[in-house]
Specification:
disordered N terminus; magnesium ion binding (chains A, B); homodimer; Transketo_C/PFOR_II (chains A, B); elongated; Rossmann fold; Probable phosphoketolase (chains A, B)
Chain lengths: 794, 794
C-alpha cells in the first residue's frame, strides 16, 4: 500500500481538516512555547528577551511529527471509539506529548496546578527542562506514557508487551528513524511472530522518518523507498507510506493511512477471532515521511534549518541576545495564529478540541498507561504443595528451578482465564528446567510449525526469542500495563539488558514518588545456569556481575536474593511475585542441589534474609564462635557446609558458626537500603572481632562494598568468583577461584588466632586434596568421587 | 538469485565433488570424535564404553553446516587465491572449526603437541570440553578466529570491522539463525551502508538456517522463503538461496552459490575501484538451509533427531551406559568411512586435503585473525602542539574533548594513507566536540546524500550509527585484525555494550596467555557527556556505572582514567592510543573546564596516576595535613578546589592537602591490580589517620571497594553520584548528590576533630549558600552567578 500525497483523494471534509490542523497548530505552538518561553505565553505583548528562558534546552526537531500523530490518533480514537495507548519512541519528544496532554485536559487532571488556561500554560512552558520541572523526554511524569524516550531502542518491544493479553487495545508506536538503527529496535520488529491475534491486541508501528538523528541522516530515511518497503515486508508488515511537506495534503493522506491501517487490523482480528483464521497476519505499518522541525524556521543565519539536522535541537539559539533571532521566534510562534487557537483566558477553543476523545479514551488518560490501576494480585498457590520434604538437612537433592517450575505451572493454570501472567526468556525455559509450565500453556508462536515441534502454541503465554532485549522489552511493557511476569535468563547474559534494566529502575524510582502512579508488579529475574555451573559452556558464560550492576541503583527499588536450595527458592519466588515496584533478582541453580531446610524454616529464613544455621555449625549456646563461615548462593553454601564438616572432623574443638545470607542487601547498613541490618543485628550474627570467612556467589568485593561500615569489617575475608573461568568440571571451577571447601578450611586455619601451628597438618591435608583433585580431573574429566558423591547429612 | 537444488546444473566435476565431500566427511568425523571420544580415535578397534568421555558436553547440531561452509570456502580460496577470513558466529561451533584447522594443518602449527596424525587426533578429541582443554565455542584459542561464539550477536559487526580498510580481504561470516534473532545482529545488517567498496574489503554473510536454536524453531527459518528474501533485500543484499539435504546436490549448489557471490563481489569492487561507480553496491548474501545435525542419527530412542532441535547438543546421550547408543555412535562414526579419509597413521589422505589452500591462505593461518602480527604503532604527534598553556592553575578554561579533537584530527591526517585508525560513535562525534576530525576525514556513508549533509564521505573513517552495539562490534573487529581506534560515547549509554565489552575483556585475558597471539591495540572508550553534565537530558542520561562494571573484570586488561582537565586528557589519550591488549576507559567532560596543570605537569601526574596538588592545598612542607581533600573526575576536581578555596578563606589555619586521582586503579592494593599502589605510597598520599573527604565522579562505594584494605580506610568519606538525577542546572546536580563545594566544606568540618564547634558558623554559611542556590535556580533556571562565574586562580 502506498498512499502518496500527489494521488490521494481528499478524505477529510473541510471542517475536519480545519479542526485537525487547528489541533496540530495548537500543539506545535505549545511545544515551541515550552522550549522557549518563561512568560508571555499567549504573546499578548510583543516578545521581549526576558520572556525567554536563559537556558534553551529543548529539542524541536521531532515535535511537529509527534504532534501530527497525536492529532490523528485523536481523530481515529474518537471516530472509532478505540481503546488506545501510544508508545512515543523518539528522544526529546516531551514538548509534543506534554502539549497534547495539556490540550486534551489529562495534564491538568494529573497535575491540577497546571490548569488549562493562560496561568497553566505559563506553568507548562516554564517547567519544561527547568530546575524542579519536567524532563525533555517523554518520561514517567508524562500522563499516558509507559515509555521513557531518553535511551532509545525499546519502543516497539514495549508496545508489544502492552498489547499482549489486551485483545481490545490498540497500541500505536511511534518509532523515530534514529531509534530504528538500534539493535533492540531492529530485533523487535519480529515480535509480530509472537502476537496472538485472538488474545492479544494490535500494535500499529508508525515509523517516523524525519530524516536525521543528532547530526547525521538516518539510515532508513536514506533507503530508496522500494528498499525500505521490502525491509518492512520482510519484517512481516504491510507498509503504508505517507510522504509530504504540505500540511493539508499530509492531513488527508495520513487520515487515509490510519483508516486503511485500522480497517485492516479490524479485518485481521475478525478473521482470527470469528472466522478461525490461523495464518500469521500481515499487520500494517505506517511510514510517515515529514520534514524534521517542520513548520519551524526555514533558515537561520543564512543556513537551512527546517528539514535538516540543524532542526534537531533549538533552531534559534541566541534569542535573548540576538534581536533578529528574537524577531524570528516571535514570527514563528505567531505563524500558528495562537489567537485562533486559544481564547483570551488561554483556553483552547472548541475547534482545537474537536478531535479530542473523551475520558479514558484520551491517550493521556488511559488506565493502561498507569497499569497499577488495572493490576490484580496474582493467584499464588500454597507453597507447601511444592515444598520438598526435608527430614534432615542435606540428605536429599532437588533441582531448585524444576521445583519452581511446578509452582509456575500452577500459576499459569490459575491465570488461564485472566491471562495476566507471562514467562519470558531467550529460548531457555526448558534449559533452565522450568518446562513444567508447558503442561499449562505453550510457547507463543505464530510462524510456521512442523510436526516435530513441541509446545508451540498460537495462544501460549511463554515467550521465547533469542533476544534478551526483546524479552526484557516485552516484559516491561506487560508489567507497565498492569500484569505480572518472570524473566528467566542465563546469569552471564543478563548483562545484555544492563542498560534496559537501568532505565526501568529509574522509571520505578520516579513513579514511586508520583502519587497518581499506582504500583505495578515487580520485574522479576530468575538468573539460573549461573557462573558455577557453566563449567561446560566455559569462560564466556561465566559472569555473576549483574547483581553488582543492580545494587548500584536506587536501593528502594532493587532486591537481590540467593536462595540456597529448592524450598528457599520457592519462598523467595513467592515473595517476588507478590511484590510491587521492585526489580527482584533471584539467583538460583538448576542443577541438583542439597535440600537444606524445610518449607517452614525457609519461610522464616527468607523473611529474615540472613541467619545462623545452628545445625551446620557447632552452636550449643554455651560459647562464642571462634570463626564465622558465611555463605550466599547455592554453590558457596554447599562448599561452606562441606568445610564445616571438614572442620568438625579435623578440628573438633573449634567453635564454628555458619551464617547463610539469602537477601544480600541485609549486609548493607540500615540507612542505605530498606533491607539493611542494624549494626546490632549484624554484630550479633557476624560478631565484631571474630574472623568471618564469607563464601559468596559473585565477585567478592561486592560483599566488602556492602559491609565496609561494619565494626567487624576488618575481620571479613571474602571468597568468590575472581574472573577465572574455563571449560572444566564443576568442582574445578570453585577450586580455581579459591571458593572450595578445602580452601575455606585453609582460610579458617590461617585466620583463627593460634590455629596456624596447631592445624598445620590439617592445612597440608587440604592442600593435598586440592592437588589430588587437579590430577584426577585431567585424566578422568569428572570430579573426584569424594567430591562428586559428597554427602552432608546422610 | 535463487539457486535451488532441484534445478541447478552440476558445476563440480566428479573429482572435485569427491574430494570436497571427503573433506566434509573428515571434518564431520572429527567433530563427532571431539564430542564423544577420549580413545580409539580411528576406530581401529570396536568402540567400547571406556573410549567414550564420561561427560558429553559438545554440541553437534551446528557442526555439519560449519564444516560444509569451511570446506567450500577452502575450495574458492584455493581456486581464486583469495585472501580470506571467516567469522564463525554460531554458538558451540568449536568442534567444526577445530576439525578443519586440524585438517588443514594450522592447528598443529599453532599447537605442535596436537600433531596431524593418530596421536594428535586422540589429543584433539580428548581436549575438547575437557578439563585443561579447549572450549566448546569457537574461542581465542581457535586458530583463525577473531570471534568467540559464546555470547551471540556480534558476528556480522565483527566481520565488517575486519573488512574495513582491508581492500583485498574477503570476510565470510556465518550467522546462525539463533544469533540472527538478537538485537546486535539485527542492527548490524545495515553495516553495508558504511562499507566503502574502494578502500574496504568485502563481507559475505552466510545465513545458516538449520532451523532451530536450543529448543525452539528459529524465527528466520520459519519465514516463507519470499518473506525472508524481502527482508534480506530490504537490508540491501542480494540473496542467494541454497536449500537441501542431499549432500551431493548441496555441494553442487553451494559451490555455484559461492562462485556467483564471489563473481558479483569482484564485479562490484571493480566497478567502484576501476570504473568510478558510486552507487551503493547490493552485496550478495548466501542463505544456506540444511538440516540441523545433518548426517547424524536420524532417530534416537524412537524420536526424530537429525533435522530437529533434538540434534542441538549430544544426539546420543547415554553412550557409556546404553549399548544401543554405543552401537549407534559407532555406526554414525563409521558412516563417514574414516578408513577412506585417514591413513593408518591417522594422517588425512590426499583426497581429503585436495581443497585445502596453502600457507597463510588457510583460514586457520591468516594473519588477519592474529591482528597483532599486522599492527603498526600509531603515528602520534607531539602533545605539546595541542597542549593548552597554563600560566597558573584555574585561570583559563577549555573544553577538554575539543582539545583532544585537534589531536585526533592529526592522527586521522597522519593515517590517511595507512588507513589504520577509525573513530566510532553513535552519532555523537560532534556532540562530543571532536568535530575537528572532519578536517581530516569524513563520516563513512554509502547511502543517499543530500545537499544539506555535512562531512558525509564515501571514504571517511569516522563511523557513526545510532547503535552502540554496532559501533562496538565494528571497532572490535577492526582492532582484532590489527588496527587502532577510539569509541566516543555518552557515559550512561556505554552500559548498552556492557555484555560486549565483557566478552572482549575475556578474549584479551585468554589471548594474553597464548604465546602465539600477538598483542593488539587497546579498545579505547572516551566517555564524555557524563553524568554531571547531563543536567539538560535528565535522569535517563545519568549513569556513571560503566567503570564499576569494567573494574569487576580481569585487572590485567582494564584501565580507567579520570583526567581532570584538557592537558591531562591529552596525556591519558596518548597513553591509551599507544597501549596494547587493554580496555581503556577515559571519562572526560566536553564542557568548558578549568585548565589546572601544564602539559609537562600533566605527563608526570598521569604517569603517577595520583598525586598531591601542592598549589591547591596549604602544603608548605612544615606540617601534616589536618584533612585530605581527594578528587577523581573533572567536576569533582572543580568542587574540591572550590572547597579548598572556601576552607582557605574561612578556616585559614586548617592544613588541607588536595590529592587528585587520574588512574583510579591506583587506589587498589598493589597485589590486586598492576597499577595498584603499595600501602607505603597510599599512606604517604592519604595518611593513615587523617580524615579523607573524597569527591568521586561516580558511585561512591566504588572508592570503598577499591580502598577497603588500606589502613586509613575508616577515615575515608566518599561523595559521588547517588542515583539522584533530574533535569536541572549543572551545579544543582552536584548539590543534590552532596558533591558540591559547600557540602565538602561541611564534611571537613564534621570530620576534623575539634572543628565542629569552632567552625559552626562557617558550616551554617555553607548551608545557607546551598539554600540560596536552591531558591535561585527555581526562579532563574540558571546557576547562581557566584557559582557559574566562580574562578579559582584568577
Amino acid at each position: 500500500m502506498s498512499v502518496d500525497t500527489q494521488q490521494a483523494p481528499p478524505r477529510l471534509d473541510t471542517d475536519e481538516l480545519r479542526t485537525l490542523d487547528a489541533h496540530w497548530r495548537a500543539a506545535n505552538y505549545l511545544a515551541v512555547g515550552q522550549i522557549y518561553l518563561m512568560a508571555n505565553p499567549l504573546l499578548t505583548e510583543p516578545l521581549r528577551p526576558e520572556h525567554v528562558k536563559p537556558r534553551l534546552l529543548g529539542h524541536w526537531g521531532t515535535s511537529p511529527g509527534l504532534n501530527l500523530v497525536y492529532t490523528h490518533l485523536n481523530r481515529v480514537i474518537k471516530a472509532r471509539d478505540l481503546n488506545a495507548l501510544c508508545v512515543w519512541g523518539p528522544g526529546h519528544g516531551g514538548p509534543a506529548v506534554l502539549a497534547n496532554s495539556w490540550l486534551e485536559g489529562s495534564y491538568s487532571e494529573t497535575y491540577p496546578d497546571v490548569t488549562r488556561d493562560a496561568a497553566g500554560m505559563a506553568r507548562l512552558f516554564k517547567q519544561f527542562s527547568f530546575p524542579g520541572g519536567v524532563p525533555s523526554h517523554v518520561a514517567p511524569e508524562t500522563p499516558g506514557s509507559i515509555h521513557e524516550g531518553g535511551e532509545l531502542g525499546y519502543a516497539l518491544s514495549h508496545a508489544y508487551g502492552a498489547a499482549l493479553d489486551n485483545p481490545d487495545l490498540l497500541v500505536a508506536c511511534v518509532i523515530g528513524d534514529g531509534e530504528a538503527e538500534t539493535g533492540p529496535l531492529a530485533a523487535s520488529w519480529h515480535s509480530n511472530k509472537f502476537l496472538d491475534p485472538v488474545h492479544d491486541g494490535a500494535v500499529l508501528p508508525i515509523l517516523h522518518l524525519n530524516g536525521y538523528k543528532i547530526a547525521n541522516p538516518a539510515v532508513l530515511a536514506r533507503l530508496p523507498e522500494p528498499e525500505l518497503d521490502e525491509l518492512l515486508r520482510g519484517y512481516g508488515h504491510d507498509p503504508i507510506q505517507v510522504t509530504g511537506d504540505d500540511p493539508d495534503a499530509v492531513h488527508h493522506t495520513l487520515a487515509e493511512a490510519f483508516d486503511t491501517a485500522l480497517d485492516r487490523i479490524a479485518a485481521l482480528q475478525r478473521a482470527a477471532r470469528e472466522e478461525g483464521a490461523t495464518e500469521r497476519p500481515r499487520w500494517p505499518v505506517i511510514v510517515l515521511r515529514t520534514p524534521k522541525g517542520w513548520t519551524g524556521p526555514a533558515e537561520v543565519d543564512g543556513l537551512p534549518v527546517a528539514g535538516t539536522w540543524r532542526a534537531h535541537q533549538v533552531p534559534l539559539a541566541a534569542v535573548r541576545d540576538n534581536p533578529e533571532h528574537l524577531r524570528e521566534l516571535e514570527a514563528w510562534l505567531r505563524s500558528y495564529r495562537p489567537e485562533e487557537l486559544f481564547d483570551a483566558d488561554g483556553r483552547p477553543r472548541p475547534d482545537v478540541l474537536a478531535c479530542v476523545p473523551d475520558g479514558t479514551r484520551r491517550l493521556g488518560a488511559t488506565p493502561h498507561a498507569n497499569g497499577g490501576l488495572l493490576l490484580r494480585d496474582l493467584p499464588l498457590p500454597d507453597l507447601d504443595t511444592y515444598a520438598v520434604p526435608v527430614d534432615k538437612p542435606g540428605a536429599t537433592r532437588h533441582e531448585p528451578t524444576r521445583v519452581l517450575g511446578d509452582l509456575l505451572q500452577d500459576v499459569m493454570a490459575a491465570t488461564a482465564g485472566r491471562r495476566d501472567f507471562r514467562l519470558v526468556g531467550p529460548d531457555e525455559t526448558a534449559s533452565n528446567r522450568l518446562q513444567a509450565v508447558y503442561e499449562a500453556t505453550g510457547k507463543a508462536w505464530q510462524a510456521r510449525t512442523l510436526q516435530v515441534d513441541e509446545h508451540l502454541d498460537r495462544h501460549g503465554r511463554v515467550m521465547e526469542i533469542l533476544s534478551e532485549h526483546t524479552c526484557q522489552g516485552w516484559l516491561e511493557g506487560y508489567l507497565l500495563t498492569g500484569r505480572h511476569g518472570l524473566f528467566s535468563c542465563y546469569e552471564a547474559f543478563a548483562h545484555i539488558v544492563d542498560s534496559m534494566v537501568n532505565q526501568h529502575i529509574k522509571w520505578l524510582r520516579v513513579t514511586r514518588r508520583l502519587p497518581w502512579r499506582a504500583p505495578i508488579a515487580s520485574l522479576n529475574y530468575l538468573l539460573t545456569s549461573h557462573v558455577w555451573r557453566q563449567d561446560h559452556n566455559g569462560f564466556s558464560h561465566q559472569d555473576p556481575g549483574f547483581v553488582d550492576h543492580i545494587l548500584n541503583k536506587s536501593p528502594e527499588a532493587v532486591r537481590v536474593y540467593f536462595p540456597p536450595d529448592a524450598n528457599t527458592l520457592l519462598s523467595v519466588a513467592d515473595h517476588a511475585l507478590r511484590s510491587r515496584d521492585y526489580v527482584n533478582v533471584v539467583v538460583a541453580g538448576k542443577q541438583p542441589c542439597f535440600d537444606w531446610i524445610t518449607m517452614d524454616q525457609a519461610r522464616v529464613h527468607c523473611a529474615r534474609g540472613a541467619g545462623v544455621w545452628e545445625w551446620a555449625g557447632t552452636e550449643d549456646g554455651t560459647r562464642e564462635p571462634d570463626v564465622v563461615l558465611a555463605c550466599a548462593g547455592d554453590v558457596p553454601t554447599q562448599e561452606v557446609l562441606a568445610a564445616a564438616q571438614l572442620l568438625r572432623r579435623h578440628l573438633p574443638d573449634l567453635a564454628v558458626r555458619v551464617v547463610n545470607v539469602v537477601d544480600i542487601a541485609r549486609l548493607m547498613p540500615a540507612g542505605e537500603h530498606p533491607h539493611g541490618m542494624s549494626d546490632f543485628e549484624y554484630d550479633g550474627l557476624f560478631t565484631t572481632d571474630k574472623p568471618v570467612v564469607f563464601a559468596y556467589h559473585g565477585y567478592p568485593w561486592l560483599i566488602h562494598r556492602l559491609a565496609y561500615r561494619r565494626t567487624g569489617h576488618r575481620h571479613l575475608h571474602v571468597r568468590g568468583y575472581k574472573e577465572i573461568g574455563t571449560t572444566t568440571t564443576p568442582f574445578d571451577m570453585v577450586v580455581r577461584n579459591d571458593l572450595d571447601r578445602y580452601r575455606l578450611v585453609m582460610d579458617v586455619i590461617d585466620r583463627v588466632p593460634g590455629l596456624a601451628v596447631r592445624a598445620a597438618g590439617v592445612r597440608q591435608r587440604m592442600e593435598d586434596a586440592r592437588l589430588r583433585h587437579h590430577d584426577w580431573i585431567r585424566t578422568h574429566g569428572t570430579d573426584l568421587p569424594e567430591v562428586a558423591d559428597w554427602f552432608w547429612g546422610g
